[in-house]
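Consider the tokenized backbone below.
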């Protein structure tokens, strides 16, 4: 079926005359008349009958007009959805974040973004840095947010969002509480550490290597940073944790910070993308929003 002719036929019906349709479509009246005749010939029906000085739809014309309205309504809806997608108003973003940003930074970013783009679907998953990079490379996620000092592969593009300061903490009233000590002075304590792939664990191990010492007690292993901090706040052990995580426990005077002489420990929170890869519009909007919020 000639959809161009069908559209002109629909315009004639909606505007009431060939003359009005020609003005609306910015084409000549004879061109519209020819298109309608060709459509009638193609369909094998008569679409209009004369009515005084005007025109009236035949039964076939009425049926075809109603079906054409449905068709062009669907077309308009498709065009609207495509425009929304290309503007990043709709669609789905797959976001991966390591433990700390997943718990303390990303939720606020998602809330702010969803307030601006309520029709966007966001799929958030979390894990360690190696998993984040793997999921990026295998196109399982669009954006990764990591808190890590680990080297990033050359095919991953990173943007620094903020610096994450970390501190060693002990229970309130611990002998080392609020002290300034050497790292060696901490090795008698029981460390509460996350498992492999954890950047805080790697930082502690790095301090041990640099000073050529070993922890004297087997660390307690936990899954998440919050668990490590809660164990210390409950009165046992020592751990290395971000400022945002420990702030409430400091306010409630459940823990104290132990400072190291001449050592400040920090890591960068980074936004990671596949280098040279084009983001879908909705993912691009989320990236831009996070960069504005950092």
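A designed sequence for it:
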């Amino acid at each position: 079926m000639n959809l161009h002719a069908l559209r002109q036929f629909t315009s004639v019906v909606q505007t009431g005359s060939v003359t009005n349709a020609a003005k609306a479509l910015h084409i000549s009246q004879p061109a519209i008349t020819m298109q309608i005749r060709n459509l009638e010939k193609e369909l094998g029906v008569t679409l209009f009958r004369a009515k005084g000085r005007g025109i009236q739809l035949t039964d076939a014309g009425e049926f075809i007009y109603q079906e054409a309205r449905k068709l062009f309504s669907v077309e308009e809806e498709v065009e609207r959805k495509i425009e929304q997608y290309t503007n990043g108003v709709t669609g789905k973003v797959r976001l991966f974040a390591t433990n700390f940003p997943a718990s303390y930074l990303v939720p606020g970013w998602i809330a702010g973004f969803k307030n601006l783009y309520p029709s966007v679907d966001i799929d958030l998953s979390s894990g360690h840095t190696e998993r984040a990079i793997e999921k990026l490379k295998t196109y399982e996620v669009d954006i990764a947010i990591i808190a890590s000092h680990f080297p990033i592969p050359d095919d991953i593009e990173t943007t620094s969002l903020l610096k994450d300061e970390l501190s060693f903490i002990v229970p309130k009233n611990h002998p080392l509480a609020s002290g300034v000590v050497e790292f060696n002075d901490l090795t008698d304590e029981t460390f509460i550490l996350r498992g492999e792939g954890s950047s805080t664990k790697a930082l502690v191990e790095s301090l041990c290597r640099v000073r050529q010492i070993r922890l004297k007690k087997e660390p307690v292993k936990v899954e998440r940073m919050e668990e490590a901090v809660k164990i210390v706040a409950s009165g046992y052990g020592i751990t290395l944790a971000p400022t945002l995580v420990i702030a409430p426990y400091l306010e409630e005077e459940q823990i104290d910070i132990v400072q190291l002489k001449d050592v400040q420990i920090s890591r960068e929170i980074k936004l990671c993308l596949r280098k040279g890869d084009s983001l879908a519009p909705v993912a691009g909007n989320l990236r831009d929003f996070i960069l504005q919020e950092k």
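Residues 59-86 form the longest helix (28 residues).
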